[in-house]
Amino acid sequence: MAETTVEQVEVNGESIPMIFERDARLPIVSMQLVFQQSGSIEDGNNSGLAKVTASMLNEGTKKRGAVGFAEALDARAIQLSVHAGTETMVFEVGALKEEFDEAVVLLDELITSPNLSAEALAKVKTTTIGALSRKESDFDYVANRELKALLFEGTPLAHPSSGTIDSVEAMTLEKVAAFVQSHLQTSRAMVVIGGDLSLEQAKKAAVTLLNSLPKGTLGTLPYYAASDKQKTEVLKRKTEQAYVYFGAPYDMEVDDPEHYINRVAMFILGSGGFGSRMMEEIRVKRGLAYSAYCRTNISRSHSNFFGYLQTKIESQKEAVATVKEVIDAFVKNGATQAELDQAKRFLTGSEPLRVETLSQRLSRTFMEYYKGEGIGASKRELEQIEKLDLKTLNAFIKKHAEIEKLSFSIVTEE
Question: Is the pTM of this model over 0.90?
Fold first, then answer.
């Protein structure tokens, strides 16, 4: 198994980073074109624009249309999709080794001549609005959406990434075309590729796909801090359960040298399943919920602490009080040696499962590069975790008392 490396591809005088790994164990190739600062954080006043644009880019090309393009892919068993996240838009293609050249041809056709037609937009709008309508009865979605609105009020992150029914209805071809033109640019591009091909073949494919794009410019990604105002939003719905979502600011950025301590602390507090504090207090001791979870979200554009649980209507107040109690006690008293030992065993012991596939290794190296942590950061982090002592861990936990500044979003009975 080869090492995943970061290479550079020269396109029109510009150097584009490329994550690459040769893996000939299976005759397949996987490739992603990642465009930075091209996700929902770029929606502006058009909530859902990046997601709608990605959906439009899944509607084939002008030449073939949606059906013809899908048939061309199916005929050669090529998988091709486009999706938008918070910070990035990604074109993803997978094919058998012998079909990869044709996959590149089809992806190039999609990038240079997407099916930005009135018919395609009408279809995407109908599908998206239908999905949004159904989500209104998904109370986990509703509670989480409102929590983000509380934590990131006044920022692009406060708006639902999928948009609203009104915002999607207001989408126009001009807006979608402008988003494509201003974001599919070589200055924003990164390439992630691996499988049964040589480095030279990988670079050739990347150049083919990026050559036709405008250069553009890549600005500075804005950073948005989560609110510490400790607000509570209660939404009344026809439900027999209470959906409790909570969050707080978290003072840590992606390249923080103490990120490894954060992994251990959050595993102990709420992301470690049945062994976590949150699960132990809320489910095991008090029977308030089947599951309770919390963790941190640390990205280049924002960071925050958040968690959730579902409980009986009559247990809602007790559940909220227990969440506060567990977090306050954790900050005040820290972890125990037994908890630290358990976290170390799990985090180091489960590592092979995180890198057993090509896509996992490519994704990991990409994130290390994208976040500016340095290649091999995950391996170094595990070595630091193994050496972590209880005094250092508890000093870190006490330092992050901002997680006590909780806001709540609760969906409960009318």
Answer: yes
